[in-house]
Amino acid sequence: MILGHGIDIVEISRFAHWHTYSVKQLSKVFTTQEISYCLSEPIKSAERFAARFAAKEAAYKAVCQLDTSFNMPFFSFCKIIEVITTKRDPILKFSSVDSKKIYCVRLSLSHSKENAVASVILFQL
Fold it and tell me: What structural domains does the chain harbor?
């Protein structure tokens, strides 16, 4: 049973200069591991930051669908979720949301030359 679904699309060009930001600035949105991954290949940093930002937006939308009383500010929410890169599929890790309500999370990321898109589905088995 699907409990919530969120999707978000962002323009990659918005993130073209984020590789020049300090770790302190980037930490307002991304985890240390996400920052390291995004900066590991400078030519891909904009699309990587964009995809992860879209994932956080999509996750926020999905959680808001799951719990209509959820009122955490977006940038606070960004600090409790992380996109983990694997060889197969990206994984969305929640460090602090009522996990009793969420049994499974599916994340899909994609990008074109101009845009990055993320879809997050929260469901119970």
Answer: 2-123 (3.90.470.20)
